């Protein structure tokens, strides 16, 4: 027969153990989602990604070329650079992964987003689309020399290459600068309202509703009656952040200046 003191001890132990058990078990519907505060993440297009996405059936075959097309059409290269070598956002091919470089970890980063600027695209392109991007990213070769911030004694030259490939620069040699893409000629025959689609602006913006960035109509309303054409031209050309939220506006040096002026003028006429 347990004593009164023993009963009290058992009750106290149960009270202490209950929160620990509750904390250790994931909340229902939250499995496979990254930890962290929801407010730290940007939901692309306002479409909340489904829970338990990694539990869904995966495509049996994936074509990296299809992933490359999606990478471009979603303007991923606007932040991560052509070939995913890095630009405003980090390189996706240098072998350095803050949140892990396994297939499931890359999927989670794209599907549910990450703090400080990586939107959650799962609600926009779905699981199949994200797996296409994973296939494309994992198919890219790791450069033999990976530039980085000087974080080792002696600077970047002492950094160990992530991988070496035959015929590429020797370890410690400066990485060859990537060839800059040739800027397209101004599109005299293209109407201004068609130019955003031509240059990939519609991957992040729509005319009448928010996608990742604000709608063109919202931009026009914000600046109506103000002399902002030059400022908007510079913002689109060079990129920036902080005006419409935490997702950065990537630079767009590939757009010829005459076309960019035409796009800005067209946006400012919208109602």
Compute the gyration radius: what is it?
A: 24 Å
Strands, total number: 0
Please outline the major beta sheet.
none
Strand proportion, as a percent range, falls in under 5%
Mean pLDDT: 74
What gap, in angstroms, lies between the N and C termini? Answer: 81 Å
Q: What form results from the Cα inertia axes? A: globular
Which regions contain 5 or more consecutive residues with pLDDT less than 50? Answer: 13-31, 149-178
Helix vs. strand class:
mainly alpha
Describe the structure using short key phrases.
271 residues; mainly alpha; 0% strand
Q: Can you tell me about this structure?
A:
It is built from nine helices and no strands. The chain has 271 residues and is mostly helical.
């Amino acid at each position: 027969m347990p004593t009164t003191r023993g009963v009290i001890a058992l009750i106290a132990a149960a009270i202490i153990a209950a929160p620990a058990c509750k904390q250790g078990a994931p909340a229902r519907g939250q499995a496979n989602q990254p930890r962290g505060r929801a407010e730290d993440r940007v939901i692309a297009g306002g479409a909340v990604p489904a829970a338990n996405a990694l539990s869904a059936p995966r495509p049996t075959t994936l074509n990296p070329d299809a992933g490359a097309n999606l990478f471009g059409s979603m303007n991923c290269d606007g932040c991560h650079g052509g070939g995913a070598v890095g630009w405003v956002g980090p390189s996706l091919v240098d072998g350095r992964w803050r949140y892990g470089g396994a297939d499931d970890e890359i999927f989670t980063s794209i599907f549910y987003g990450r703090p400080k600027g990586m939107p959650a695209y799962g609600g926009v392109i779905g699981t199949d689309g994200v797996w296409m991007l994973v296939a494309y990213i994992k198919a890219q070769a790791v450069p033999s020399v990976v530039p980085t911030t000087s974080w080792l004694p002696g600077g970047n030259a002492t950094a160990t290459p992530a991988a070496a490939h035959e015929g590429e620069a020797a370890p410690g040699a400066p990485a060859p600068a990537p060839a800059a893409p040739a800027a397209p000629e101004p599109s005299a025959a293209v109407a201004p309202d068609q130019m955003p689609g031509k240059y990939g602006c519609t991957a992040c913006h729509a005319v009448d509703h928010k996608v990742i960035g604000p709608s063109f109509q919202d931009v026009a309303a914000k600046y109506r009656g103000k002399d902002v054409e030059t400022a908007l031209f510079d913002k689109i050309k060079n990129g920036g952040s902080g005006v419409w939220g935490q997702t950065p506006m990537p630079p767009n040096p590939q757009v010829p200046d005459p076309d960019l002026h035409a796009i800005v003028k067209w946006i400012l006429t919208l109602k």
